[in-house]
Amino acid sequence: MLGAREFALMKPGALLVNTARGGLIDEEALLEALLEGRLAGAASDVAGREPPQPHDPLLRALALPNFILTPHVAWASDEAMQRLADQLIDNLEAFMRGESLRRVR
Q1: Among residues 5, 50, 79, 97, which one is catalytic?
Q2: Could you give the C-alpha distances from 98 to 89, 92, 95, in angstroms and in order?
Q3: Is 28 annotated as catalytic?
């Protein structure tokens, strides 16, 4: 979805954050946009190939001061994990009472 053409169309100083899927971003084009200053910075917690290999563009981008790569589990803070556990408990208790469960539709 995002490659060299799209990066060229972005407003100077744009920041890119990808927490969706690695395959959405052309990683070579992202690295090039960062190197050329077309993007002010980027962060990703996904890669096109998991785990990334040493020659992959995102790992090469780690040498840049304006790029951050985190593991795809970066969302799993203590607070987030507790929130999921609380939702699970609420859903189990609702089930036991014969009530509807919370569902994503």
Answers
A1: 50
A2: 14, 10, 5
A3: no
